[in-house]
Amino acid sequence: MSAKANLGTALLLATATSLAAFDAAAHDTSGFYSTIYVGPSFLPSTNLTETRSPGATASGDARFDTGVGVGGAFGYRYGNGLAAEIAFDYRTHGLKSIGGTTADGDFASKTVFLNGYYRFAKWNVVRPFVGAGLGWAPEIDFDINRDGRSLSYSRSGALALQGIVGGEVELTERWSLVGDLRIKQIGSGSFKSENAGAASAISGDLDYRPISANLGLSYRF
Description:
By secondary structure, the chain is mainly beta. It contains one helix and 14 strands. The radius of gyration is 24 Å and the shape is elongated.
């Protein structure tokens, strides 16, 4: 065999070996897993009008404090980078003001998601991943405390979407440290008053689009 042929064969073998190594690195161990996470959640302002009798009408941008998000999931890794899970997500954000006027309260949601993920090859010790989820929010609550009274409004049965980007670091064969950024969106909808005997109503955009930065632990069974 000529030197050129030997060189070509060596290059082909080296390329195949490299691709095989990358392919193996891109895959992970198949099996079931569970994850829990917690982190700060940030909710953009939303425009609303709240009327109550007796009391003045509050109207304008509602602004929120940094909130908190917690959640958990149970899923399956397919061993080829892909994974699917069922997850529960809860977020709550304290109300700061409406139309520049101080107000207390909170805007909170409970959502069940079906998430899908793809995990890439490790970058040093971190395995990056991306994900997306389709969910259902059985309950969204908005409590508003102003003029000495706390009133509540709720909405049920809303579709939700989310995008996820993050990374994980393997601590042991079964435990991993997970960090991610999640952008969640629940479109605007009508909220009903939960205040028996109170003449109150809320209207406006009432968009719910929190962004959360989470840290969690994942366990592979």
